[in-house]
């Protein structure tokens, strides 16, 4: 998550599935997005999953325009799921509102949106963190409430957005992963995190 145009400077570990949890760009310009997608599509991982983040304005354009530049071997999730080897992944770009960034909503809208998270999700991917989990006091309380209501608990919840919250924390049966690569000064300080399911 949160590579902000610096993706080519990152060492990517091997794996079957690679997930990027948003903020691939600086301001979501088309050329930034195309540059990232070309790089991401060439990675050797069998499955490549992507959601947008609050910097990725291009993805707010109509779906038909986004699909024109999206390589076929990348799965872009926008409040939707994909099943890989029996594991259900569900992803959304939305975060709590601050400033004039992309994919931001208020509490009531987010509460409704998070109701779409399937009860049987295995890997949840959101751009922002839930409240009080690797969030530097800036997480989404509505997202946390929905997580607590999911009967089976996701195996993994991957997010970013709050760069300072990088790391892994386990609560109950869910592994929470803040995968932000850059720090608050937009410097590469963190490494991609490998998870085994």
How would you describe this structure in keywords?
6-stranded mixed beta sheet, 22% strand, 197 residues, 3-stranded parallel beta sheet, 4 helices, alpha/beta
Molecular structure report:
- This protein is α/β, with parallel strands linked by helices and 197 residues long.
- The strands form 3 sheets. The protein has a 6-stranded mixed sheet with strand order 4-5-8-9-11-10, with no helix packed on it.
- α3 packs parallel to α4.
- The longest helix is centred in the first third of the chain and has 12 residues.
- The radius of gyration is 15 Å and the shape is globular.
- The relative contact order is 0.17.
- The model has no long low-confidence stretch (mean pLDDT 97).
- State mean pLDDT (0 to 100 scale): 97
Q: How far do the termini sit from each other?
A: 19 Å
* Total number of beta strands: 11
Cα-atom Rg, whole angstroms?
15 Å
Work out the helix count: 4
Main sheet attributes: strand count, strand direction, barrel closure: 6 strands, mixed
* Strand neighbour order, sheet with most strands: 4-5-8-9-11-10
Order of H and E elements: EHEHEEEEEHEHEEE
Shape: globular
- Contiguous low-pLDDT stretches (5 residues minimum) are none
What structural category characterises the helix and strand content?
Answer: alpha/beta
Helicity, as a percent range: 10-25%
Query: What proportion of the residues form beta strands (DSSP E)?
Result: 15-25%
């Amino acid at each position: 998550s949160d590579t902000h145009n610096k993706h080519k400077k990152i060492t990517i570990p091997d794996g079957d599935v690679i997930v990027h949890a948003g903020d691939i760009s600086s301001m979501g310009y088309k050329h930034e997005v195309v540059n990232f997608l070309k790089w991401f599509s060439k990675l050797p991982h069998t499955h490549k999953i992507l959601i947008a983040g609050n910097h990725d304005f291009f993805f707010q354009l109509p779906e038909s325009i986004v699909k024109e530049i999206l390589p076929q071997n990348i799965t872009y999730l926008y409040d939707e799921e994909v099943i890989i080897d029996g594991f259900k992944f569900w992803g959304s770009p939305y975060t709590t509102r601050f400033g004039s960034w992309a994919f931001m909503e208020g509490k009531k809208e987010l509460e409704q949106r998070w109701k779409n998270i399937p009860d049987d999700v295995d890997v949840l991917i959101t751009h922002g963190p839930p409240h009080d989990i690797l969030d530097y006091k800036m997480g989404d309380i509505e997202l946390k409430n929905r997580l607590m209501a999911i009967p089976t608990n996701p195996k993994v919840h991957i997010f970013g957005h709050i760069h300072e919250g990088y790391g892994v924390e386990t609560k109950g049966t869910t592994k929470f992963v803040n995968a932000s690569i850059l720090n608050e000064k937009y410097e590469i300080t963190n490494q991609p995190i490998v998870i085994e399911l």
